[in-house]
Amino acid sequence: MQYPALVSQLWTMNRIDIDQIRFHYLEISFAFRNRTRLKIFLLERLQKEGFAVDAINYVFCTDAYLLEINKDYLKHNTYTDIVTFPLSPKGAPLLSDIYISIDRVRENAETFQTSFVKELHRVVFHGALHLSGYVDKTKEQAKIMRIKEEEYLRLYFCST
Prior knowledge:
- The chain has helices at residues 3-14, 35-48, 63-74, 102-111, 116-131, 139-158, and strands at 21-25, 53-61, 82-86, 94-101.
- By secondary structure, it is α/β, with parallel strands linked by helices.
- α4 (102-111) crosses α5 (116-131) and α5 (116-131) packs across α6 (139-158).
- The longest helix is centred in the C-terminal third of the chain and has 20 residues, at 139-158.
- It starts with a helix and ends with a helix.
- Residues 1-13 have low confidence and may be disordered.
């Protein structure tokens, strides 16, 4: 089956609306390939985790931009790769803004000796996992989060 036909079938069968997930670019630009496939994957994963989606906005920005968000809203004066703002009431379809620093993703990819593409997807999945109820405040929670990230990466990249 050709890819466009698969997308059409998924939209019809599962009522997937890829516009429920949007990508925005602030102060930066980069090529993000296969956005439609990624949106479908995210919606399917969230559905399997038991969540419906209203709207999720992924906002790709610079370190400086995300540092200001981190200071203003979370009172953290540190750089981070991602900040997830769940905006929906408990039990309601997911509504969220997720900010990702592309500068931090690039640096982390180098630090962890992985590709930018893989690290970018890891961070995107990390935000979705937070919306699914996963947290990473303790060592044990962080370990579980890493396992789920690896699972999502394996599922996503093995299906290409």
